[in-house]
């Protein structure tokens, strides 16, 4: 125990928060475009944990990246084509089986920021995005419109549907002046 | 228990700004107090706050167990009849809950007394869990407080744990609130962050942007179904709004059964169930002749927030009152408990339950004996031996 044993409750060093407190909520409200966050890159869960994040967070982020990779990594019909793009030893057989090749999954991204507004969601550009190593050794990710990689698409766990009505909650709050419902 | 003052931390406002804690001032008044603290002994915290909080929580749960099987009690709690099944089902199928805050009157001597239970939409969790903790660590690092100084606060760790333990990360976890309110939005963002730490995928939505699809499922702005949703919006309102017909158990956090506890009508029911319990104050429904026997009492609407429409009575005559939007609501009368008083301030202890564990404390003080929306948040410490 590096922590001081005399303190029963408060730990001296806490895991870092993904949003860094509430700052993201302010950014969201002020309508800024993507905040200038610097996503962190990790090649393993252990590396992510040792950077101070919670293990379940690191694990879920890595799984999100893997899922996104399986879904949307660029595919090549043979190793030579793939390696022409991604360098020698830069490719692997696609996990979907068959004869396709994809770039090697080199790691995953952890962003401090929400991507595209309110979402903090796997595989959509920041958090949980797969990382590849380009021919030149640069880490790249599949952000739409960058580096010539096909745009990734978020594939939600939740079912897609069509909304037929909105604003069915919140009205009574409105009638009281919208003053906050916490107590 | 005592109140001390110390010089404020230089740069704490910048720190607050940096983490988005813009509501350290509210209504043009300071809300976060950096230059004072309430001091407890470890014995006071363990014996008088932590233990009783867990006991009160268990008592509250056993009250829910009774009430869901008792239509007359559901009626007395002003839960609309058409939602009895929703409340019952959510309890019987074990819909998990996340958190709640007991407001306690305590002055360092004698038992802490329950003023009310914010079981549905409690706020001030960010201040208590995060900013208060940083305050302590800064103070220790700066040498203002001795190394062994503690704080009853493992709120953040407990929230992450509760999010991981109570909810499988098998679907998107939506977080809904009234986004125009900075304090509510901050509270929800913080909780969302704790959920992310626990491995959840999350999305934030304004409560008014929730939609429904043709099957009556709730939907978000990206046309996805909402399958699990934290909402910082009271059940008593959701029960009575247009989408109420689409409500079902197993979806919202806090769950529908919390409507039984977030309601001040639970106070007389709890007193009936556990008469004379040292952590309870005698409480009665308005009009109960026993209420007239209380020399000093507080009259409270079932659902008011932030002290609205609370009236202090002496021998049945109002001596102090706060205006508000709940004037016409049904009321309860509760025996008066003096608050800890120092420097012209009255302090209320907010003792948090996360999951089923007492996990931390936050204090708010007010110049009035009724804690209102102008009350201020003051950090606390447990003195080193």
Automatic annotation (TrEMBL), chain B:
InterPro entries: GSPS_pre-ATP-grasp-like_dom, PreATP-grasp_dom_sf. The keyword Transport does not apply. Residues 12-382 form the Glutathionylspermidine synthase pre-ATP-grasp-like domain. Keywords: ATP-binding, Ligase, Magnesium, Metal-binding, Nucleotide-binding. It comes from the Bacteria. One of its GO terms (molecular function) is ATP binding. This is Glutathionylspermidine synthase pre-ATP-grasp-like domain-containing protein. It comes from Croceibacterium mercuriale.
């Amino acid at each position: 125990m590096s922590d001081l044993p005399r303190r029963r409750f408060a730990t001296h060093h806490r895991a870092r928060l993904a949003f860094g407190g509430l700052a993201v909520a302010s950014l969201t409200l002020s309508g800024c475009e993507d905040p200038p966050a610097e996503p962190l890159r990790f090649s393993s869960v252990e590396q992510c944990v040792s950077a101070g994040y919670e293990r379940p967070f690191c694990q879920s982020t890595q799984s999100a990246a893997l899922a996104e990779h399986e879904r949307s990594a660029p595919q090549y019909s043979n190793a030579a084509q793939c390696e022409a793009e991604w360098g020698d030893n830069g490719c692997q057989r696609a996990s979907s089986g068959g004869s396709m090749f994809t770039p090697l999954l080199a790691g995953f991204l952890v962003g401090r920021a929400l991507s595209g507004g309110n979402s903090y969601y796997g595989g959509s550009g920041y958090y949980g995005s797969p990382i590849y190593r380009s021919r030149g050794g640069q880490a790249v990710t599949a952000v739409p419109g960058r580096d010539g990689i096909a745009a990734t698409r978020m594939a939600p766990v939740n079912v897609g549907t069509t909304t037929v009505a909105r604003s069915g909650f919140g009205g009574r709050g409105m009638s009281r002046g919208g003053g906050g419902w916490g107590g | 228990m005592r109140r001390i003052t110390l010089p404020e931390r230089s740069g704490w406002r910048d720190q607050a700004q940096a983490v988005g804690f813009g509501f350290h001032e509210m209504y043009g008044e300071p809300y976060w107090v950096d230059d004072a603290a309430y001091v407890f002994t470890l014995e006071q915290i363990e014996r008088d706050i932590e233990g009783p909080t867990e006991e009160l929580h268990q008592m509250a749960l056993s009250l829910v167990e009774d009430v869901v099987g008792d239509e007359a009690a559901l009626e007395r709690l002003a839960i609309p009849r058409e939602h009895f099944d929703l409340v019952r089902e959510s309890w019987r199928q074990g819909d998990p809950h996340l958190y709640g805050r007991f407001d306690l009157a305590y002055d360092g001597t004698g038992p802490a007394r329950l003023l009310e239970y914010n079981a549905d939409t409690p706020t001030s969790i960010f201040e208590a869990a995060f900013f208060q903790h940083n305050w302590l660590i800064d103070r220790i690092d700066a040498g203002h407080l001795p190394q062994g100084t503690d704080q009853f606060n493992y709120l953040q760790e407990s929230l992450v744990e509760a999010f991981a333990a109570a909810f499988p990360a098998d679907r998107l976890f939506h977080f809904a609130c009234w986004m125009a309110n900075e304090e509510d939005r901050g509270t929800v963002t913080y909780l969302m962050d704790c959920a992310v730490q626990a491995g959840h995928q999350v999305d934030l939505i304004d409560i008014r942007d929730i939609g429904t699809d043709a099957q009556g499922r709730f939907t978000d702005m990206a046309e996805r179904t909402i399958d699990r949703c934290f909402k910082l919006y009271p059940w008593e309102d959701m029960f009575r709004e247009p989408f109420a017909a689409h409500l079902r158990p197993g979806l919202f956090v806090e769950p529908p059964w919390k409507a039984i506890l977030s309601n001040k009508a639970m106070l007389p029911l709890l007193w009936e169930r556990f008469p004379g319990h040292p952590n309870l104050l005698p409480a009665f429904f308005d009009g109960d002749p026993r209420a007239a026997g209380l020399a000093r009492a507080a009259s409270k609407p079932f659902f008011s927030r932030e002290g609205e429409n609370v009236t202090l009575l002496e021998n049945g005559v109002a001596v102090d009152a706060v205006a508000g939007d709940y004037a016409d609501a049904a009321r309860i009368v509760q025996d008066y408990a003096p608050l800890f008083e120092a420097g012209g301030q009255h302090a209320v202890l907010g003792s948090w339950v996360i999951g089923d564990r007492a996990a931390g404390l936050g204090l708010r003080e007010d110049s009035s004996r009724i804690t209102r929306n102008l009350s201020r948040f003051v950090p606390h410490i447990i003195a080193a031996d």
